[in-house]
Amino acid sequence: MKVKESVKYYKSIVEDSKNTWKRPMEVISKQDAHVDTLHHKGLLNMCANNYLGLAGSAAMADAAKKGIDRWGFGLSAGRSLCGTQSVHRELERRLSNFLHMEDTLLYTSCFDANGGIFAALLDSQDAVISDELNHASIIDGIRLCKAQRYIYKNNNMSDLRKRLEEAKDALVKLIVTDGVFSMEGTIASLVEICDLAEEYGALVMVDDSHATGFVGAHGRGTHEHCGVEGRVDIISGTLGKALGGASGGFISASKYIVTVLRQRSRPYVFSNSLMPCICQANVKVIDILEESTGLRDKLMDNTQYYREEIKKLGFEVPDGAHPIVPIILGDESVAAEFSQRMIDKGVFVMSISYPVVAKGRARLRTQISAAHSKEDLDFVISCFAKVKEEMGL
Q1: Region(s) of the chain under CATH 3.40.640.10
Q2: pLDDT for 192-228, tens place per residue?
């Protein structure tokens, strides 16, 4: 059969990737500190967003089962039709109270939340000012709106000021930033961002997907960690990381912003409701978070220990205190080989290369969980040392 020219084009892209593009490993067990894949058993899992270790917990499974028994499997409708059950409103209320925000709107993912907010709130007379390292969902969401677009250098407040000055005549000015930049594990400078927002009359939006549930003294997120509660206007976040690791996203803001989104946000209006069993399980998550900071405290202890020990091996690791700990290796093929050697030794960690990160900045993004024991972390550290020596790095 003759191969179409367009197919040959995509074939050339794959071949030029130098074997750094691979099919994802197929996991055949529940998500936990250790997982089984199709070809490897008992891998120590270092690449999950399962920060609080809840994804594979019996508590979450039990809550979800009770949710199915009480509310059914799905709704076959959007929220504005017959797709709003009491459990959806309960979770929205509980999230609002936990985050110290006025109201909350649920989405099927945070990608949908970020994809649906900008076009709903901003028009051609408005401006959005976005950090250059913001998540892909924010970038895509901004592309869908008619607002003037300004990009400022990552966490660079002097450059943010310049962009705000350029946008000063816009009717609505919205600064948007990741709370935690997921490829670096660094936290946004929210105090300075809020100061500039007040100076220029701008709103502040934070995507706290890598913070909600464990960053801050009570796990409320980067606005708590940075001491700017009440100064951040909009928080987007996910239920698919620390908060149980299933799916679902949300926007928390003033009741007026949330009301506008309920009427105008297309992913909310035109999508099926979030599965009620997920809502029920996430109500349980908030119960756990409000009862104790134990999981959050263990996660932070694990993170501090791991960061200190991995740096002793001489790897390039960005400074910080977040459980995202990137091991910067630079070359894409080196990162891919390092990943495979780690997997062969029993550690599940994947390489991340361009275009997810800049060329020449390939890495292994290790992620710590409250489910990890000190013995788990010691094993990972020893494997890193062995592979580093084997590869002569």
Answers
A1: 58-291
A2: 999 999 999 999 999 999 999 999 999 999 999 999 9
Does 210 qualify as catalytic in the annotation? Answer: yes
Residue in 173, 241, 298, 322 annotated catalytic: 241
What confidence tens digit (pLDDT) does each residue in 62-103 have?
999 999 999 999 999 999 999 999 999 999 999 999 999 999
Which helix or strand (DSSP H or E) is residue 128 part of?
Answer: strand 127-131
- Compute the distance between CA of residue 313 and CA of residue 385 in angstroms, rounded to an integer: 7
As a whole number of angstroms, the distance between CA 284 and CA 287 comes to: 5
| Token couple for 272 | 């099926």
Predicted TM-score (pTM) of this structure: 0.94
Active-site hit among 109, 137, 182, 369? 182
CATH superfamily of 18-47+293-390: Aspartate Aminotransferase, domain 1 (3.90.1150.10)
Q: Name the catalytic one among 88, 135, 173, 210.
A: 210
CATH topology for 58-291 is Aspartate Aminotransferase; domain 2 (3.40.640)
Find, among 377, 391, 191, the residue nearest to 298 by Cα: 377
Per-residue pLDDT reduced to its tens digit, 239-288: 999 999 999 999 999 999 999 999 999 999 999 999 999 999 999 999 99
| Max Cα distance, the chain (Å) | 65
Alpha helices in the chain, H assignment, sequence order: 5-15, 58-71, 86-99, 110-121, 136-143, 157-166, 190-200, 222-225, 255-264, 266-269, 276-291, 294-311, 332-344, 374-390
